[in-house]
Amino acid sequence: MNLIENKEPTVKRNLKARHMTMIAIGGSIGTGLFLASGTTIQSAGPGGALTAYVCIGIMVYFLMTSLGEMATYMPVSGSFSSYATRFVDPAFGFALGWNYWFNWAVTLAVEIAAAAIIMKFWLPEVPSIIWSALFLGLVFMLNALSIKSYGESEYWFSLVKVVAIIFFIIIGLLTILGVFGGEVIGFENFTMGEAPFKGGFLSIISIFLIAGFSFQGTELVGIAAGESENPEKNVPNAIRQVFWRILLFYIGAILILGLLIPYTSPSLLGGDVDNISVSPFTLVFERAGFAFAASVMNAVVLTSLLSAGNSGLYASTRMLWSMAKDNQAPKFLAKVNHRGIPMNALILTAIIGGLAFLTSVFGDHVFTWLLNASGLTGFIAWIGIAVSHYRFRRAYVAQGGDINELKYKAKWFPFGPILSFILCMVVIAGQNYEAFLSGSIDWYGVAVSYIGLPIFLAIWLGYKVFHKTKVISLKDCQFEKSA
């Protein structure tokens, strides 16, 4: 096989196993679960919501095992952009990397803006821009100090969310059994009216996108693989633990909500960063008799936002650094300081995130389009992982590799990546299918929903035409074992 040895100064392998696990959990458990999970129950009923999350969960499992196989064999900080460049086509890797970087840079702006809104719950007189500047400075500092400071901060941010969800599930079960509230609820709400499945198959399909967004961020474990102190052991362990824990948290939380709150309840549609007091999670805690529920959930959601901003800055910085190493971004972004931090990439990403935030202050219309442009990027990245793994395994065999010698082997190949590819394409196509069902096509709705797709294709095809790249033959795919 074609091995590339990398002797240049690089990032440091200081992430421990517990960091890797919590990075993946922190990336995928966020405000979508705490604030928006009720919407899926209201739309498709509790059974429909559970079905959608289980299906997306299975797809994510296959994607994570695909990523795990590649990241264990070839741990690269920046991961799937590099894999796509080596195993598919440099143009494909270029487009994946820049789109993913842009997505997290914009997401960083979203998270710090939302965190500032949360602070108004306690200190309404302080201007939001002050909090946003402080939070941006905080996550920048955590990323700039060392990879260990990022890993440690993400560990504790994520732990707060995990404890909150476990506590919610326990309190919810005790409430259902009548320990809190004095009334046994059972399955009454789960089977009332059209429940458990409201609206049939199409309703389930319609919430696939919400479920998919909820799971996005699990791929962070692949990006962090290049900085794990023992990737051959830590990456597989993190992937195995993370999938089952996340699935348990999401399925457990939605099951509790479906049992406690009727799908017809208007409260399931409530809950956002402006009014956490009507979040389904808050309502369940209050029903159990916890008067301080709103304050607690505010603190948990604030932690989730800071965690997402922290991880977003890390992921986009490493992606930019990785692309610079692959000659797909300016070379100055590949420089790493003595602490193993790609500071130029970090500073540029923080600046772009800050500028994106300023558009939200001075021009909501511009910010909305930036956000929409990044909307499909997570699913496009997942498609990139599926395609890259399919090609990785075939190239590995074509170059004489023995599958049994892989330290971590994805199960059910090639079914896993093929199923993941198909489901991601279905979700992307159905992003706003309602725009095509009315008497006349809602072209503005189509543009808002799908703008990220032509941007990705334009970057991909533009690079391909300019650099005259071709799909790499299996015999020429290059394998690298050092980050």
UniProtKB/TrEMBL annotation:
Membrane association type: Multi-pass membrane protein
Primary localisation category: membrane
Keyword Magnesium: no
Entry keywords, A to Z: Amino-acid transport, Membrane, Transmembrane, Transmembrane helix, Transport
Amino acid permease/ SLC12A domain mapped to chain residues: 19-471
NCBIfam families the record matches: PRK10836.1 (NF008094)
Name of this chain's protein: Amino acid permease
